[in-house]
Design goal:
This protein has helices spanning about 1-15, 30-45, 50-55, 60-70. By secondary structure, the chain is an all-alpha fold.
């Protein structure tokens, strides 16, 4: 009974604490066709800034998608990294 009371108090306290959501102002939703285009652009060495601009997106939105695609092994690290072909080695 005491454990249940402790859990309940902890839960209620956590619910009332102030929550911060990082990057709440950004749009991280992409449709499947856009993802395929991003993968193709990445593989062509197009800089991430150009990828973002071509979709009317913030660079941060494209960067998170690139990170996610890399983590899922749908894309590979490339020469020039996020800067693509135009990067200085």
């Amino acid at each position: 009974m005491i454990a249940a009371l402790h859990i309940e108090r902890r839960h209620l306290t956590e619910q009332r604490s102030k929550v911060y959501i990082a990057c709440e102002d950004l749009d991280f939703l992409w449709d499947e066709e856009q993802i395929l285009e991003v993968i193709a652009m990445w593989n062509m060495g197009i800089p991430i800034e150009h990828i973002a601009n071509s979709f009317g997106r913030e660079v941060d939105e494209a960067a998170l998608l690139i990170l996610d695609l890399c983590r899922q092994r749908k894309i590979k690290p490339r020469a020039g990294g996020v800067f693509g072909r135009g990067a200085i080695a």
